[in-house]
Design brief:
The structure is a homodimer.
Chain A lengths: L1 H8 L6 H21 L5 H7 L3 H23 L11 H16 L11 E6 L3 H11 L4 H11 L3 H24 L3 E6 L5 H6 L2 E6 L1 H9 L7 E6 L19 H10 L3 E5 L2 E7 L7 E2 H4 L3 H21 L5 E2 L7 E6 L6 E7 L5 E5 L2 E4 L7 H6 L3 H15 L7 H13 L10 E5 L14 E4 L1 E6 L4 E5 L3 E4 L4 E7 L5 E5 L2
Parallel strand pairs in A: 1-2, 1-3, 3-4, 4-19
Antiparallel strand pairs in A: 5-19, 6-8, 6-18, 7-17, 9-12, 9-16, 10-11, 10-15, 12-13, 13-14, 15-18, 16-17
Helix pairs in contact in A: 1-4, 2-4, 2-5
Organism (chains A, B): Cirrhinus molitorella (mud carp)
EC number (chains A, B): 2.7.1.23
Catalytic activity (chains A, B): NAD(+) + ATP = ADP + NADP(+) + H(+)
Chain lengths: 487, 487
């Protein structure tokens, strides 16, 4: 495979559109390939029902090729689309599919009014906490030192963030755009209504918050990572735009970007004792106690509404951009529930919880639940080597390579019309079964058998989900989130 | 390897003691072999520092042989100890080590006073819950049906448990033993003081509770699984004794059993804002709210004590038989902490929590955190096959075999003087590192950087563990729990 990649790398310079076509193809390949590791996925079944093993290898090969391509693309090497045979046909098939959802902007984008939603830095947070307790700045310094934290470190990160926000606002105003800066605590539906576009100035958490109040699939949301050294920023623009935001604005103006519609999860809730009112985990920085208290208060205020319509499933007032996590609120308690995939049979399960994610979320919590560490991969290969007597390499480089390929296969595209469910630490014994630890689905139904559980959306909004409640989790075109791809 | 196993299987009948020696050797082998998959483990380093790869294979082979042996032993086949060469020397070495901790009883064991601690069945639990709410039995039936539960099913399990407890008590009384039956809610230190031995009549949870109040390493604890169809009973006697408890008593009387001293974990707590008073999770069936409330109450009552001795680490008044779990109480929140293994350098980590277990606990939560499902093993092997071009088998049988071997290697002996730590869903990025996802250690220190976290012992007792608290986790000979091995 690598030889083929090398050959294609050495050919003549393509035009920009050809390069873009290649990037989309490589991206499309990733969309094809990830299916291959789950033979039960609908698309896999449709395409190659009878030649499983062979095709899985083929697709994995195509995946590794696309990775090699993407790597070279990111290093700026010119490549010619010299593909042959079956790759081509799949390429074109998916290229068409992709172009429907990630499209080149028609003309530029220049919003008149932009809301900039800023995160709360750790410094601000600690300050608020201790001021509330009546302590001075000096006291704060000492307390932090006692705990092993650095006051000056926190202040530095705070200043970096604030300075970056300042640059963003300045760049926007220079373009003649009306700017409204709101702290995350002040961000509400009115802000969304007012703005033509919304910028999240913080990390991924801020981006999730910003997205959570946007229901209009035509309202663009952009994320800028205001502290790249401390935050991953998967959902944010590439890091260099943090210090060069005016460059990003120019590209937007000229149309040198693509729209990306990210799928989001919706949830219907029905059954006994349900409570469709969300509890915001971040906003209030709730402890466990406050968390359950908040749930209880909302139950009491909502009880009349629930009783009036006992049969109709409630559509919950949030959308998951990353994932839904279902499980006992107390981290050390095992979760009991029943699960049905794509209207299949119900299965009783006991585990540490259930994660259902989108393509966007496949890089987040779900990724961490399912990824393998090199130690584990090495051990599997070692055992395989022992049992077969084959000369399987066990050097560091090979282990890293296999681990990387495995983990990358967990990721799929944000526009993909499918959910990925994974059971966290499934407990399989005489009593509980687990036919599939993970897989793709269009729809997942869960019936709670839990004691004190919740359904958590994007790690930020929580719904009570106790014994007798039934959740139906799915995707809907209406819930798409409009974001930007800037290279 | 299988050929050698086969050859040894076909030889003449050994005496009982030889058979026992073989069993202990096979068990000892398991103790050797599990090290081999962690090259950083101290014992591995000492034994074979310079011939890593070769010996890991050798040890894995010995492990597979011992498994084959154990399987045949359990089917009652006679085996002769026909081992050769290096296996023998390791066998003898470990046989000596093992015999120090799992020893044949010298004469019989016939306690004069036995306390039988019984679990609360789900039926009793639901009854209490609804009676408290002022509902009748009929109301209970209907409510359960609404939730999709079966009243008659719960009652049936309750009756099975009660009947088995009855048999146990009867068998004891027939032997002239004085019996005190206590519900788990009534079980206390006085009961432990009074009894010569304690029997747990329930599942593993009840056994953990029973053990939690025993500090005397000479006081035997036995577990009887009173509902084998619904409960795994890892910590309990083999299932056939549930319906034939008098047989178990006879063997005990005659000395036809072995003592087993199980290692237990102790924790020291120090640092800022610590709270050394435990909160019992099971007893009160706490919701999150009550959990944190309980922590808060204990903080208020204990605050004076903490201030008097700010420097001295507190030895917590519990011992972990299975494991200690450290992490945010709220299951959807990421945990931040620093960890130091065996007085090594501190490492900042972000994850879903940290598990530290004993050999006993290596079959429990830790097992579920670390085990691999066949789906994952198949994918790793498939990727390995693709990258090497080797003819790695990918049929169901082979995948199952590799998965089984991998998962079994996570288990180690209850008497082994070592802890096994594993980081659950480590988050590795530009900001957080994770040099080792898991491994063996004698001592683990953790400094909390959490918001609302706890240290949970055996899933039943919880200690606050917030930002600034430091825990030192280790094993101590004084904390051993005396249990029984009955075949």
């Amino acid at each position: 495979m690598d030889t083929l990649a090398q050959k294609t790398l050495s050919k003549a310079t393509p035009t920009e559109s050809a390069l873009r076509a290649l990037k989309m193809a490589a991206y499309a390949k990733r969309q094809v390939s990830v299916d291959c590791l789950d033979s039960r996925s609908p698309s896999f079944r449709c395409l190659r029902a009878d030649r499983r093993g062979c095709d899985r290898s083929l697709r994995l090969e195509s995946r590794m090729l696309s990775r090699a391509l993407r790597k070279s693309l990111s290093y700026g090497n010119p490549i010619v689309a010299g593909f042959t045979g079956s790759y081509c046909s799949r390429l074109y098939f998916h290229q068409t599919a992709v172009s429907k959802v990630a499209s080149q902007a028609e003309g530029g984008f220049k919003p008149g009014k932009v809301a900039v939603v800023t995160k709360t830095t750790r410094y601000e947070f600690e300050q608020q906490r201790y001021r509330y307790a009546g302590l001075s700045e000096e006291d704060l310094k000492q307390l932090l030192a006692l705990k092993g934290s650095s006051y000056s470190g926190l202040l530095e990160r705070h200043n970096i963030h604030t300075s970056n926000v300042g640059q963003i606002v300045e760049s926007l105003q220079k373009e003649g755009i009306e700017v409204r800066t709101v702290k995350r605590g002040e961000y509400d539906e009115d802000t969304v209504q007012w703005a033509d576009a919304i910028i999240s100035a913080g990390g991924d958490g801020t981006m999730l918050l910003v997205a959570s109040k946007v229901y209009d699939k035509n309202k663009p949301v952009l994320g800028v990572n205001t502290d790249p050294e401390r935050s991953e920023g998967h959902l944010c623009l590439p890091v260099h735009y943090t210090h060069a935001f005016s460059e990003a604005l120019q590209k937007l103006r000229k149309g040198e970007f693509r729209w990306q519609w990210r799928q989001r999860i919706r949830m219907y809730l029905e059954g006994t004792g349900i409570n469709p009112t969300p509890v915001d985990l971040h906003e209030l920085q709730l402890s466990l106690e406050q968390h359950s208290k908040a749930h209880r208060i909302t139950t009491e205020t909502q009880s009349s509404t629930t009783h009036n319509n006992p049969e109709r499933p409630h559509l919950l007032p949030v959308r998951g951009l990353n994932e839904i996590f279902i499980g006992e609120s107390l981290s050390s308690r095992a979760s009991y529930y029943e699960i049905s995939i794509d209207d299949g049979p119900w299965e009783k399960q006991k585990s540490s919880g259930l994660s259902i994610c989108t393509g966007t979320g496949s890089k987040a919590w779900s990724y961490n639940i399912n990824k393998l560490v090199e130690q584990a991969v090495e051990d599997v290969l070692r055992i395989g080597k022992l049992k077969t007597g084959l000369d399987v390499p066990l050097n560091q480089e090979f282990i890293e390579s296999v681990t990387e390929t495995y983990n990358e296969s967990l990721i799929f595209g944000p526009e993909e019309d499918k959910l990925f469910f994974s059971v966290r630490e499934p407990i399989v014994n005489r009593v509980f079964s687990n036919s599939r630890q993970r897989g793709f689905a269009k729809k997942v139904c869960v019936r709670s058998r839990c004691w004190d559980a919740c359904m958590v959306v994007d790690g930020g909004t929580s719904f009570e989900f106790n014994d007798g409640a039934i959740a139906t989790i799915s995707l809907n075109e209406e819930d798409l989130l409009r974001t930007v791809i800037l290279d």
